[in-house]
Each structure stands twice: as structure tokens, then as C-alpha cells.
């Protein structure tokens, strides 16, 4: 396989039609047999991979090139998710705009060449796969929660946490699912998993979901300012499932597929 073949596997698994902005092949490679993959892979991991005889390094999080500079563009898919949950498209767009601009400003100043230039100097094939893996994680977790809670219309936040902890990946994690807004005895209401779309959409996006009838958002992570704002809104709950275990769900699905295609894959750097 080559790096394009591997990218195609990820795109197909996520049911995407094209490679998203936060996912890129920085250094192409051919005849890939041994892969080293992790959530965050940078120059030290590239050096290690080179010394250990790997043919390709895959990072989950964007570390280089257009995946860094254009990262904010992938956030637009959050609008589709909001519309699916009965938020008017114009309101969804405006709710997301503030966070998108903040991300664009932050990424514009980033050293997008740091890791990819090291990979090129070492002649080490390097790529990242972000949104496709997050989509897989989100879909899997949403289906699990829907199935587990479907006969419990008065499910509480403790039930949501218990349902997440049924999954082995959360059992293995040091960072366990935690309630960030609400209490264990609060009713969950409609539960929506928001793992995909680049990054957290911000407090305006959360408020739009809650006003549209969502009771609880399950996120990989939530910054302190969002938690504070949602507590002040007092209309919805947040359960943080955990960053590394949530990322691991989609990445492990990808790893399984690559192994089935004959690749030797070693996981590290956050993948459980």
C-alpha cells in the first residue's frame, strides 16, 4: 500500500467523499508495510520510527501544512450536525462563527512546517488522519448510547456515564468520563455526541443545541470557559467522555482495517 491507499481507507470508513481540510499527506510513501500511529506524533516520534524501521508515521492530530493552516475550515461540518438536531441553518452558522474565527487566528500564526520539514529531511513518510477518525468515534458512541438508553426515558447523567463506562476503551483510560455541567441525578434528556468537526464549537453552539431540545452533550473535551457559560445558561448538561479514549475508538477501527489489509501497525501516544 501507499499513503494515498491508506488515506482512501480512512475516507471510506468515515463515509466521506473527499479528504477534509484537517487531514493531509505531508510526505508521501510507497510500499508501506510497517506503520507507527499515535494521537500526537511529532519530530521525536519520527526519529524513533526511522530508527526502528517503520515505513510510515500517522498522527491523528494535525501537525503540519494545510491541516494546520486550514484547520478552521473543517469546522463547517458542525453546521450540518446542528441542522440534523433541528437548529435552523442560519442560526447554526452564526453560533459557530465566533469559534471558527478564533481558531483561524490561532492557527494562522502556527509553525506549520516544523514537523513536515523534519519528516522530509529524514525521508520518513508522514500523514495525519483527523476528521475521519473522529466521525467514526462519534457515530459509534452515539449508537451505543442510543441503544443503551432507548428504554429509559428518564435516564440521568449517571446513566450516561455508566453507559460510556461499559465500553472497554473508557475502562482502560486514566481520564474517565466525567460530568462537567449538571449532577449525577439530573435528567439527561436527549443525548447528542459531539466528537467530530475539528474542535469544540464553543458556548454559543452548545446553547443553540440546548435551545433546540438537546438535554445533554457528550464531548471529548470542554474548555473551562464553555463549562462556565453552560452552567450560567442553566438549560443543558455536559458529559466529557475523555479525549484519548474517545479518539482511540475511531483510530482503533482504522487500525483494524489496515491490519486486515496486511499492514503491521503499532499504536502509541494516546491510543488505548
By DSSP, the count of extended strands is 9
Instruction: Report, as a whole number of angstroms, the end-to-end distance.
Output: 25 Å
Q: Could you tell me the CATH topology label of the largest domain.
A: Udp-n-acetylmuramoylalanyl-d-glutamate--2,6- Diaminopimelate Ligase, Chain: A, domain 1
In terms of per-residue confidence, which ranges show pLDDT below 50 for 5 or more consecutive residues? none
Radius of gyration: 19 Å
Indicate the mean pLDDT: 97
CATH superfamily placement of the largest domain: NIF3 (NGG1p interacting factor 3)-like
Structural class: alpha/beta
Give an overview in words:
- The chain is of the alpha/beta class and 272 residues long.
- It has 2 domains: 3-73 and 107-129 and 247-266, Udp-n-acetylmuramoylalanyl-d-glutamate--2,6- Diaminopimelate Ligase, Chain: A, domain 1, CATH 3.40.1390; 135-244, Udp-n-acetylmuramoylalanyl-d-glutamate--2,6- Diaminopimelate Ligase, Chain: A, domain 1 (3-Layer(aba) Sandwich), CATH 3.40.1390.
- 49% of the residues lie in helices and 15% in strands.
- The protein has 12 helices and 9 strands.
- It has helices at residues 3-13, 43-52, 66-69, 77-84, 89-108, 114-122, 131-149, 157-165, 168-172, 203-211, 224-233, 243-260, and strands spanning 24-27, 34-38, 56-59, 126-128, 178-181, 190-194, 214-219, 237-240, 264-268.
- The chain has a 5-stranded mixed β-sheet with strand order 1-4-3-2-9, with helices on both faces. The protein has a 4-stranded mixed β-sheet with strand order 5-8-7-6, with helices on both faces.
- Helix 10 (203-211) links the parallel strand 6 (190-194) and strand 7 (214-219).
- The two termini are 25 Å apart.
- The model has no long low-confidence stretch (mean pLDDT 97).
Amino acid at each position: 500500500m501507499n499513503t494515498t491507499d491508506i488515506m482512501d481507507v480512512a475516507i471510506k470508513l468515515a463515509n466521506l467523499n473527499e479528504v477534509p481540510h484537517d487531514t493531509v499527506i505531508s510526505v508521501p510513501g510507497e510500499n508501506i508495510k510497517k506503520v507507527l500511529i499515535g494521537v500526537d506524533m511529532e519530530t521525536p516520534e519520527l526519529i524513533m520510527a526511522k530508527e526502528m524501521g517503520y515505513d510510515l508515521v500517522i498522527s491523528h492530530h494535525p501537525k503540519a501544512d494545510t491541516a494546520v493552516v486550514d484547520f478552521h475550515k473543517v469546522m463547517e461540518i458542525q453546521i450540518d450536525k446542528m441542522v440534523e438536531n433541528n437548529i435552523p441553518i442560519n442560526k447554526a452558522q452564526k453560533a459557530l462563527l465566533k469559534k471558527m474565527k478564533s481558531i483561524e487566528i490561532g492557527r494562522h500564526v502556527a509553525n506549520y512546517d516544523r514537523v513536515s520539514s523534519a519528516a522530509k529531511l529524514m525521508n520518513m513518510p508522514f500523514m495525519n488522519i483527523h476528521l475521519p477518525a473522529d466521525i467514526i468515534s462519534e457515530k459509534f458512541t452515539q449508537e451505543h448510547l442510543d441503544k443503551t438508553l432507548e428504554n429509559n426515558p428518564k435516564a440521568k447523567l449517571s446513566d450516561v456515564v455508566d453507559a460510556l463506562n461499559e465500553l472497554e476503551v473508557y475502562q482502560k483510560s486514566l481520564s474517565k468520563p466525567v460530568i462537567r455541567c449538571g449532577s449525577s441525578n439530573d435528567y439527561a434528556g436527549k443525548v447528542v455526541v459531539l466528537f467530530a468537526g475539528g474542535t469544540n464549537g464553543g458556548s454559543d453552539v452548545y446553547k443553540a443545541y440546548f435551545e433546540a431540545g438537546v438535554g445533554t452533550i457528550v464531548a471529548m473535551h470542554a474548555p473551562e470557559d464553555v463549562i462556565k457559560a453552560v452552567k450560567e445558561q442553566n438549560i443543558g448538561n455536559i458529559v466529557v467522555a475523555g479525549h484519548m479514549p474517545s479518539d482511540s475508538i475511531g483510530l482503533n477501527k482504522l487500525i483494524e482495517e489496515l491490519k486486515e489489509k496486511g499492514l503491521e501497525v503499532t499504536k502509541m501516544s494516546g491510543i488505548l
